[in-house]
Amino acid sequence: MTVTAAETVRAIRAAPAGPRVGAFFDLDGTLVHGHTAGAVYRDRIRRGDIGPGELARVLLAMIDGGVLGGDPQAIGRAGFAALRGRTVAELSGLAERLFAERIAGTIRPEARDLVRAHLRQGHTVAVASSATRLQIEPVARDLGIPHLVCTELEQRDGVLTGRSTTGLLWGERKARAVRGFARATGIDLRKSFGYANGLEDLAFLGSVGRPYPSNPDPVLRHAAEEHAWPVLTLREPRSPGLWAGLGTLSALAGVNAALTAGVVYGRLTGDRQGGINVGIGLSADLGLALAGVRLNVTGAENLDKVRPAVFVANHQSTLDAVVLGALLRHDFTAVAKREARFDPRMAVISAFLDPAWIDRSDRASARHTLDRALDRIRAGTSILVLPEGTRMPTPALGRFKKGAFHLALQAGVPIVPIVLRNTGELAWRRSLIVHPGTVDVAVLDPVPTGDWTVRDLDDRIATLRDRFAGTLANWPAEVAA
């Protein structure tokens, strides 16, 4: 029997709540598409940080243990030995960089939904993997998973010894570790969930009462049929294709043509702002249509309820700019970091909107820029700010900077929160390609700032960020359903 992520989420919601129910997720091939170790080795090869001898030993161990049915622990021993003398701090930094650059974009979107559903139920959620803590921690933190059952590396004074304190948690060894974790934390495995994709996890899946082979390899799929386990199919992260590339090129051409039409309209009518408004709305609509992107907006009435206003949105993708243009449409500009001024993808839109470019490295300059933005608000122009300050590699929220909230406080205008759910899925942070699909948007009720003070600003910002996080975790359409 094959089940979807939506059906599995319903099963999770129907399961007993509380920490005695466990939810154990394999990492490679389950939470993420592909193998995190592969990203590490590709990066080391690219930087010339791995010699031919080490690479040959690791490859031979992988072939023997993973393909020829030899000792899987040999893979671990070869990998552990290669790390001898490296510091934990150094490898933690490498793991964070690789997560942002390569691994974040491989997290399966529907796996995120499953994790969120278990956390809502108060289940004890853990990553159970043969990968090391250093590999797993960035992914687990992003997904909000608090527990790790994983291969642990031996260290002395922050330096790796080239050995493991657990051995490689592969096959039965991983299953024993999960059972041990369950005993230590009071989890009832008979009521617990397990997710994995490879035959090596047959013993692990057999340890829980509710196993879900997830995008399984052919051998595990056959075993699942024999055990009458539901086979879970998770949607893969999007990868560039010909049609997406052509759609992106068409969208760029359409945006530029529409902006040009707006300029022409403004000159013919003598109404520059009217031309800008025409160009913004037309270019955003045309760009999204040609890229095959549709908008599913909740709370659209809040976009024009109060103007001028400071609109704040979370930031996952270059696609955000076009989506937000389609939403706001008229009489607005933006505050953006100075570095984005030199992004060729933003050049035409930036020239059209005339954003307030803020130099975060120069406090006096940043203050002057915000003062100019304040003057524009008082003249009737709304301001769009992305308070995270940079594109986030995943839907997880970054820290909110204060600039947008100072503006709203000083101008005495409301803040209108715009929550973007999945622009990063259609156009990942580092991708130049936009994939067709539907972007979910929630425009929340305007937040009055008349009674705000500088003293309570931090608390106000934290409360608003919590609203963003709560909306992402409990999306309006899902709550209504």
From TrEMBL:
<dbReference type="InterPro" id="IPR023214">
    <property type="entry name" value="HAD_sf"/>
</dbReference>
<keyword id="KW-0808">Transferase</keyword>
<dbReference type="GO" id="GO:0006654">
    <property type="term" value="P:phosphatidic acid biosynthetic process"/>
</dbReference>
<dbReference type="Pfam" id="PF12710">
    <property type="entry name" value="HAD"/>
</dbReference>
<dbReference type="InterPro" id="IPR002123">
    <property type="entry name" value="Plipid/glycerol_acylTrfase"/>
</dbReference>
<keyword id="KW-0012">Acyltransferase</keyword>
<dbReference type="InterPro" id="IPR036412">
    <property type="entry name" value="HAD-like_sf"/>
</dbReference>
<feature type="domain" description="Phospholipid/glycerol acyltransferase">
    <location>
        <begin position="309"/>
        <end position="423"/>
    </location>
</feature>
<dbReference type="Pfam" id="PF01553">
    <property type="entry name" value="Acyltransferase"/>
</dbReference>
<dbReference type="InterPro" id="IPR006385">
    <property type="entry name" value="HAD_hydro_SerB1"/>
</dbReference>
<dbReference type="GO" id="GO:0003841">
    <property type="term" value="F:1-acylglycerol-3-phosphate O-acyltransferase activity"/>
</dbReference>
<protein>
    <recommendedName>
        <fullName>Phospholipid/glycerol acyltransferase domain-containing protein</fullName>
    </recommendedName>
</protein>
